[in-house]
Amino acid sequence: MKAVVLTGLREMALTERPDPEPGPGEVRLRVEAVGVCGSDVHYYTTGRIGSHVVEYPFMVGHECAGTVDRLGEGVRDLQVGQRVAVDPAMPCHACDQCEAGREHTCRNLRFLGCPDQAEGCLAEYLVMPAESCFAVPEQMTAERAALSEPLTIGVYAVQQSVPMAGTKVGILGSGPIGLSVLAPALHGGAAAVYMTDRIDARCAVAREAGAHWAGNPDTQDVVADVLRQEPQALDVVFECAGQQESFDQAFELLKPGGKLMLIGIPEFDRYSFQADIARRREICIQHVRRQNNCARKTLDLVATGALNVDAMVTHRFPLEETQKAFDLVADYKDGVVKAMIRLDR
């Protein structure tokens, strides 16, 4: 099979690998679409995220959808020819975290495209546990099925934050994760959603997707502009950029008793914040670690049209041009929001 692997910093190669075979409880998928995620790009540009360090060659990619091609022994709930979305997390189901219902923080978790855990899905075929594959309706496009992965993070983040009905919301970062938060926030009844991004094209996409306001912190005082509209400040802010600057803005935007949801993955090792503001306003800070049991819920919301993130995909590439896609995303060129690798053409 054809596969694309990292071979060095900002280096990729198209290679040939043996077709994988499914073991007991596994299925082989013919991959149709792979979304390029910011975490994939971190590995591409820096070779690491925190303690996860790439050893070359290595295949990244975890947002994918495809068609079941072969069944391993014991698989009963899926059939050959069935189209599926993939949950890239593979928990052990045996540790204390799994037993506590926290499979997303499983102590033995394996995750697609994560060094030391599992290689990714930038290939023609992929073997996954059957339990990680969720059947989708025939009318659901491969892109929508692949987008369900980042969207589950948004669904989970909103679910873990505050009740959305009547809530004033800030989303800092209007890339794929920010937009994945926007959709469920609006669906949940947020009264107003204010978004920011350093790329004007992304601000435009955010407004088109339903944000009440979107601004660029490089060209305007976004904190002052939001607070002019919301003098009492915001109930919850989702930091989706992984930047110290947006972390600081979040504290200024939150009302006393407000909640800061940290979703963005920073390339640095430590955040800092002004203790006086956080203490006096009694700000609650919560990290969001991927998602937990929201895949089926998210796919059902997409299937019914309750959540629509089609505008997120701005660029498409064949597998052979994967490096072009990664360079585009890494350099924030051409107003890119989500680049999609298509293998079904």
Q: Would you give an account of this structure?
A:
The chain is an alpha/beta fold. It folds into two domains: 168 residues, Alpha-Beta Complex (Quinone Oxidoreductase, Chain A, domain 1), CATH 3.90.180; 136 residues, Rossmann fold (3-Layer(aba) Sandwich). Helices cover 28% and strands 28% of the residues. The protein is built from ten helices and 19 strands. The strands form five sheets. Strands 3, 6, 7, 10, 11, 18 and 19 form a seven-stranded mixed sheet that branches. The chain has a six-stranded parallel sheet with strand order 14-13-12-15-16-17, sandwiched between helices. Strand 18, helix 10 and strand 19 form a beta-alpha-beta unit. The two termini are 16 Å apart. The mean pLDDT is 96.
**Fraction of helical residues:** 25-40%
Quantity of strands, as a count:
19
Overall shape: it is globular
**What composes the largest sheet?**
7 strands, mixed
Give the averaged pLDDT, no decimals: 96
Quickly give the structural class.
alpha/beta
Topology pattern, helix = H, strand = E: EEEHEEEEEHEEEHEHEHEHEHEHEHEHE
